[in-house]
Amino acid sequence: MIPRASSLLPVLLSGLILFPHFGLAQAPPRLPTPISTNQTELTKERIWPIAGRIMTPDGEPMAGVQVQVDIGTPAFPPQKIETNLKGEYHAEYRLDAMTYTKLEVNVVASKEGFSTAKGSAELTAAQGSREINLVLRENSGGSNLPSLSALIEGMAGRFREPGTSGPRAGAKTDYERGLERMLDRHDSSGAVGALESAVGREPDCLACRGLLTLALLDSGRWDAASQHLAEAVKLTTSGKAGPARPEPFLILGVLEMWRQELPRALGYFMKGLEIRPDDPLVLLEAGRTLVEQRNWEGADEYLEKAIHAGASPEARLLRIQALLELGENSEAESEMKAYVGERRPMDLPLEDRMVYARLKERLELKAYEQARTVIDRPPEELIRSVPALEGLEPAESQQPLPSVLARVQRNVEKFFREMPNTVSVEEIHEESLNRKGEVKDFLDEKFQYLLLARPERSELGLREFRTPTVADAPQSAKLKSGYMRTSGFACTSLHLHPAYRAKVNLRLLGRQMIDKRRTWVIAFAQRPENALVLARFDAEGKSSPMLVQGVAWIDPESFQILRLYTDLLKPPPETHLTKQTTEIRYAEVGFKEVASSLWLPTEVTVTVQWKGRTFRNRHRYSDYMMFNVETEEKRRSAIHPTVPADRPE
Question: Is 558 exposed, middle or buried, given 0-12, 13-18 or 19+ CB atoms closer than 10 A?
């Protein structure tokens, strides 16, 4: 099996934080004045230092950002600087003190994969050094998080027709000039000046401050944006700008989403919904936040309300994801039909096609819904189908299950949270059997076997690589015809991870003596309506999802998994696969670099029946060691990734 790990951790919505939080999560330290701005008497020159820092939305410094500083004078071309490890940049200009008494400075910061930020400032000789700090936000492609452009587009109608929150006669011209520059020309930096003038003329104009906030954010000037947003919150809560409006809380919530402060973000959206319960954009973003929190019931509720309130089609796409997690596949199919409309699925954006493919796969798994599983079978029937259960003492009740399961889940969760990068020796004895079950041919291979932790620990599972040993490299570079490559066993225990608790059915089978231990025996079976596909069968150019059931033998003292057995819940249709069983034995492995030991696979037997042929692979793992992914060995191993699971050649 190859695990298709996911980080779908269910998060309960607890208390909501409803008080404002402005500015960056981590205030940057002031940079020292690099060079004095005092006039040099002998040269009649003035040294103008221009400095600042480039940061992420949560206040972390960004190194390697390309910064361009321009003072708008042809005689002095723009300077290009790269930020250091502290995110700092510094430029200086030596100018004639009599000619240049002030400077109009423009700073542009850019880095691949991030939005471009622009800042400007007017410097005078009396001011001395002044920082121009900017924020770069990672582009949200492939993410559920809203982009700033989508937020601006979603709020555009509110600013074009601001109603009672709009400017009066004194600021109207500046407001309309800034609005046209920003929404029609898409020039946020150019709109800032006009909108600042509008706010200066009418400080109580809520629409003026809201649009200025978005223009400053789009320019990367988050410090200034946060100040105006704070004033907008004061205006809407005090009533000075007329009836309260949800827009300031909407923007605040989105900012907190970008900072990954999801509970705080949800609190702001709830505050906005107190003001206007049927606001489609606030409902959409509240639902999006709940999707990010894996609170699928809450997400479904708010996204359904958003759709009825007239939210953008994105609300349907987000709701489809929540419905799939809840196992409401028919409802998800209806929403997808409404979302796709007259379009062809192949013409959808990549992210949308991925959701469509997931729905299609889930609908394909409907064939499993009537499968009879280990959860339903009586003990005597189970022992006949799983000989390893011989000697089972059937459970009299399910009362011990919650307590036993909770301890097992804690161990599984800890394993995937703390598992280091390891390398071991893997020996595979691959057999091709005849119809009588006799070995007609075999192949022995030897590999270095790497288990690498996911870069983001919130993403469950491990990455697996094989690289042949030097002696076996010529033979092992490609699997010979007539055999089958199998892999992915270190992640089989994910079925008992607490994140997947709602996606499997469980049953306490009883007790059984294993290796002189009276183990607990637990059966599990994936639920077809909402299962996460952790295994696939790849053959003849097609990859088919497999749902499994199995049995786990649990140590009665440590509550570690000693053995695991899995079988197909039902053979996947149109694959010619009739059987696939896996038997895993675990052993405690110690590492001198860490105090605690780990329970890792040491022996694995996989039996596959495909197209009337039977394959049996026996894997042995030994010499586990810690592995440094920065070494050259990691680079070499990545060149030879593991062949997909259960792949005949």
Answer: middle
